Structures are given as C-alpha cells and as structure tokens.
Amino acid sequence: MSLQAKLDVFKADFEAGKPPYNVPASVIEVMHRATAELIAAGAAEKALKAGDKAPSFTLNDPDGNPVSSTELLAKGPLVISFYRGVWCPYCNMELQALEAALPSFRELGASLIAISPQTAVNSRKSVRQNHLDFPILSDVHNDVAAAFGLRFALPDYLVDLYTNLKNDLPSFNGDDSWTLPMPGRFIIGQDGVILYAEVNPDYTRRPEPEDMLPALRKATYASAD
Q: What are the pLDDT digits (tens) for 48-105?
C-alpha cells in the first residue's frame, strides 16, 4: 500500500471518530478550517522551489551532536523531510515510509535527514517509535523551516483547540511561539541547488518517497560527470 493510501485510511477512521482518538465532528471542522485558510493564503507558493539555492544550516541531532548540511552535501545529495512532530500520526507514517526507502537513497549516494521543531527528547522518541536509521534534527523556533519558507503561526482558534486536546506544542518544542512547519520534502544537489521540492499546507497529503528517485538519479549522474 502506498504512503498516501495509508494516510487516507487513517484519515477516514480519524474523521469518523473511531477509536483510539474518538474525535468529535466539531474538532474535525476546526482542523479543516485551519487547513483551508492556510491553502487560501497561498502559503505553499512562498516556499523554496526546485532551482532555488538552499540555505545552509547546522542543527543538533537527538544526542546534541551538530549536523551540518554543508558537510552532508560534501558526501552526496541530501534528502530533507520537514515534519510537525512525534505527536502527529501522519508524520510518523511518513517517517516509516522514508525509512523503507532509505536503502534506495543510499544506493544513489544520498543522505536522509528529518527536521522538526521538537525537543531532543521527542526526537529520540520519534527515532525509537518509528525504528529509524536516519537522524532527526531539532529546529528550535522553526528557524530553518522559516528559511525554506515553511514556518507558519497557528491561528488563535487552533491554539485553543490544541490546548483543549492537551496537544501542548510549547512543551513538545520547548518554544512558546505556537508555530509549525508545513510538511516539506526537498532534495538538494551537491552544489546547494534544490532539485526537488514538494510542500503541502494540507498535512494529510504527503508525496511518495519513490517520487524523489528520478531527481536523485539525475543528481548522482551529474556529480559523476
């Protein structure tokens, strides 16, 4: 089953109020409103695209070790997934799909990292729960996400909803700004230019990992010339 098919099955059950979430219809309506407003604002159009120069960055892994995009690009192309956090089931399913595709990325000489605003403790939880063999980096205040054009502030009514649901983003992220990244997937070539970009303000929609392979192959062949 494809990643999106799995997400669609989960979404249908979640929005039908099935266990274990048992979410009432009023909550779903608020979530739909927030997503529709983000789409209408044209948020995704402001994100970096293929052909743009990617910002360089250094972020810490869950053990506090700095990971530099410049150093990773010296070894080969870089695949980056921006995601919301361990509390987001859609994100966890995406991480698992990326883990399954990791051998294909490595065969093409690429490194894979995931970036979220969550604290190191929650990144370790993400790695452990999803059985990941690639690093999750902590993007404090969503600063790197902002450099890629992904950061947005939650509207007040969504902050109220998350608070009522005890989805306490300030605790998850160690930051009281109530910002999140739109889910984004990027491939950066060794020259620092973005070769592939997929950003969606609807967090229930994620591209298939296999969709990135043509761009990765092109990057690999280019670096071999």
A: 999 999 999 999 999 999 999 999 999 999 999 999 999 999 999 999 999 999 999 9
Asked whether the beta carbons of 206 and 94 are under 8 A apart, the reply is yes
| CB neighbour burial string for 175-207, b if at least 16 within 10 angstroms, e if fewer | beebbbbbbbbbbbbbeeebbbbbbbbebbebb
The two tokens of residue 67 are 């990971």
- Give the C-alpha separation, 50 to 192, whole Å: 11
Asked if 194 contacts 89 with a C-beta cutoff of 8 angstroms, the reply is no
Return the axis-axis angle of helices 3-15 and 89-107, rounded to nearest 10°.
180
In the chain, the domains with their CATH numbers are 3-223 (3.40.30.10)
Provide the whole-model pTM: 0.96
